[in-house]
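Quick entry, no commentary yet.
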Amino acid sequence: MLNWEKINLVLLDMDGTLLDLHFDNFFWHNHIPSKYAQAHNVSLAEAQRYLHIETSKVAGEIEWYCLDYWTDKLDLPIVELKKEIQHKIALRPDTLPFLSALKAANKQVVLLTNAHPDSLSLKVERTALDQHIDVLISTHRYGATKESQVLWQKLQADLKFENDSTLFVDDNLTILNSAKEFGIQHLLAVANPDSTLPNINAVHLQGYSYITDYKNIIDDII
């Protein structure tokens, strides 16, 4: 599936790729609508409708991922609300074996997330991901998301990586397409980002190589 002998750098998404996406899905689809409805005295259905409209306006943009933006837009303490359900933050069960294998194979490992720095900090605090990864990067430092070619240009200028020896892993097909457009040669999709939802059907993965359990590729890495 992947030629590990040709891969030196592994760029890893966080939510859905290393962490169970259930936390984020629950937060935005359940927790926030409920809190918004309570705070603004509207029905849950009205809150959900409003959130859908507002998130659609900035999909894929830095604002979509920006906790400061949503704190102002919704007039809610987003970081504090995340902390209310932080017990739901969890590593995928196959993440640590995967990261250990990458370390054993002397691969450089970089976390590349669109998550806001405050969200990244909370998740690192809960999971100790920083103990297993060489560099952690929030795309907010560049003012651009992984959906944008600008991000990839700035990231390459910083990390000096070669496209043909870099692997990028993500559960978002739009982002994988962006990495492909930039020229990243090795791409891997995650077909089960949320443990509470069915796996994504291979038909919908646009021909990308994909995993549902990193442990299945550990022997190939080492």
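second:
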Amino acid sequence: DALTAARTREGPRSAVDAVRGVRAGGSLVVIAAGDADLGRIASVRARFDRVVVLRVRAAEPASAPPGVHMIDVADLDGLAEAWRRLGSAR
């Protein structure tokens, strides 16, 4: 697995567009604002062994696309607990 740093930058390219250039395999963890485009994230699902989307302060609940684990968190305590539950579900 590799860690990748990302920065916000103006332009038409999304995080999913950037992921398309990454070697397939391993896990993909996407940290996104609550209004993440889950359909676009699901479009790269087949390239990875596991895909997890962390939605931060999502305004509305959403259904996870097939094969994508989704965690909605409001704060760091919620993230820690949800991450532990996800790990124990493996």
